[in-house]
Amino acid sequence: MKKSDDFKEIEVLFKKLHKDIINGFLNLDQKASIQKTKWKYKSGGGGLSCELSGGKIIEKGMVNFSAIEGLVLPNSALAKKIKGDVKNFLATGISIVIHPDNPFVPCSHFNIRYFETDNKSKNNWWFGGGFDLTPYFVYPEDIKSWHQSAKTVCDKYKKTFYKDFSKQCDEYFYNKHRNEKRGVGGLFFDNLNTQNKNFYKDFVLDTGITYLKSYENIIKKRTKKKYSKEHKTFQLIRRGRYVEFNLLYDRGTIFGLQSGGRAESILMSMPPSVIWTGKRGIKLNKFEKDLKKYL
After folding, report:
1. Domain spanning 5-292 has what CATH number?
2. Mind telling me the catalytic residues?
3. CB of 142 within 8 A of CB of 106?
């Protein structure tokens, strides 16, 4: 399938945003090392997987870019009904997950994506993405600023975006088997194609800039706070919820695996260490109770 001019432009802009976000994190955590892996996709295209690790702030981070051509669009990408057969597709996107070392700094996630298909209908392209925050120890002012940043970027484009996308985020990032939200929310959107393509292109790029600035502000406030062994243990336990969601429900993970993507890149979002245990002392139970008030 030949790349359209629109796809080429969006691919270039996504690559630039990917580079800018990597530089942003490396400037913030100059102790972090980065390992870059270029990979090719079986039916065309490929990507650049970047793993951050060993930093003073970032224990492990994934900042990935991809632009691929596929022959069969996996069901995980078909969040909307597409009329007619889809035999070829193009997809480009950025996917980010940051697992901080300090338990008082939340884990964060961001992704944007753009699809084109060979379907002849007007619905042969769409944008998706979003960002969300997963704290282990909650600071209400951080949650407020996170959501205010999300609302501000949404309001620039459409006044209903924040209400709609925040609700979708809460509904999507949900561990059904535990009857529990994964984090404190943010934005989640998919199938954006009813307005001008440039309108959505600008919006998703703007969410990337907003994500980085908002998350950097939280990191700077919390990363120097001293923590105990119990705080770290609780972080590792709660990271297990992240793993559960990504393996059981996350459409990005499922899409990557269904489409035959590079497993190491897809699973790079997993935390560096995690604990599943039923043993809980008084402190850990209190941490859990305090967190669940916000979930």
Report:
1. 3.40.1500.10
2. 109
3. yes
